[in-house]
Amino acid sequence: MPRPFKHPKTGIYYFRQKVPADLRAKLGDRIISRSLRTKDPEQAKLRNAEEVRKQAMSWEAHRKGPSPLPLQKIVALSGIFYREYMASLEAEPGEVEVWEALLALLGRLDGDQEALTRWYASYVDNLLLQHSLVTDDHSRGRLIGEMHRTLREAAEQQMKRAQGDYSPDPNLARFPPAEVVDQSNTRPSTQDHKPSEANIWALFKLWEADHVADGKSAKTVGDYRQKVQSLVDFVGHENVSQMASRNIVDWCDYLRHDQGLTGKTIKAKYLAAVRAVCSVGKSRQRITMNPAEGVEVRATRAPVTRSQGFTDQEALKILTAAMVDPAELGRRSIENKRAIRWGPWLCAFTGARVTEIMQLRKSDVVVDGAMPYLCITPEAGSVKTGKFRNVPLHPQIIEMGFLEMVRGLPDGPLFFKLDDKAAADPLAAAQNAGDKIRAWVRSVVGIKEAIQPNHAWRHRFKTVCRDVGLHPEVVDALVGHEDGRASTHYGEYTVRALGEAVCQLPRYAVKA
After folding, report:
1. Predicted confidence (pLDDT) at residue 256 exceeds the cutoff of 80
2. Nearest CA to 162 among 90, 93, 91?
3. CA–CA separation, 446 vs 453, rounded Å?
4. How many CA atoms lie within 13 A of 286 on its CB side?
């Protein structure tokens, strides 16, 4: 379901939805937007849900084609305009001269149907669209004429107010109630009232339940939700049974040509998410066809112009900058400064993903015997493979005082503050901490080349491991990669064995 849009200046929430792909030839490639008339997020969600329902009816009406409007509904529509117009000017109607000028202009429009159409068409069409009405040219012309009459009455009443006359408005009694507009002219079919098992969010819930039960990454749930939402926004509805393969193809083209995503991203992330969700729906007999099945996206590799890992010079530049006096890091939180101080160093010597480092808790730093290690576990937030691993600490990290720093902290996360928000979503807090490091590498250290500011440590780590001759299976055990072979899951690498490998990694010659 499209989320309410909060206006950045006024704070008022709006309903916004893109015209579905199959209606763009008729309605144009545009976004439907209207105010939800509230600044309260919870109220906005409720009103937005109702607007989504009404808009779905509007799209369906456009698909079915035009039907005539009875006079009662035409007058009721003009009454909606009248009430809103009068309410907007109730406190301050302005000067009498303004209304005299408007009435004179409206008089010049009398009898000129072409001029009336130009004057009122845009508002009339939006009014019909908001109320899920698609009508014929004759009914539209009658509504334009009724709107002209109604605006004249509103102008005459506002002129009275401008003169200080706030007596009861005699015009209100002639308009039918607004509810008349949304009453259907036809009896709804039984099918319209059946709960739809083909709703894509119902299928998403089925997929999510299986995904969580299998112990897989919680981060993937959020990623898939965003991809599914993208499809819903594009097609304009949530019913999978009304989605054809062509809709999926058009969506992929939109992502590539309008949104600028690469074929690889669309294929591996967006299309994969929708295909997986619909596949679950098909296997559970909620839908008979997976519209994403058989859809292909050409994914060409982008030209590679440099290594994906940091060079020696780049690595030294970042690690040296990380050792700066915390006072020089500006008005950052203590936790953020700690993340900048230790995050790059830990990534450099573990090859871990930055989020895996940022989600570490005090209890995940284990001093057990001669080889201290980090326990990288999905219990702390997220691990892509869903499996814990123990990564020994390099001697240089220990000598720099990492263990002493950890011992001086209270129980809980090392690199973000455990407030109510972080407690509710520690993964998001860890990702935010990683984003702060990424921004620091770009803006302060000045690494602006086409390289990922955090993930490049992971590429570099594997390169360094190859340079010193570490066995590929040992390296995979350290970084948490899987090679797909069943034999890899037999036995394990102990902290002692991995520690011997880590100690072979060269030190970084930084200036303290």
Report:
1. yes
2. 93
3. 10
4. 22
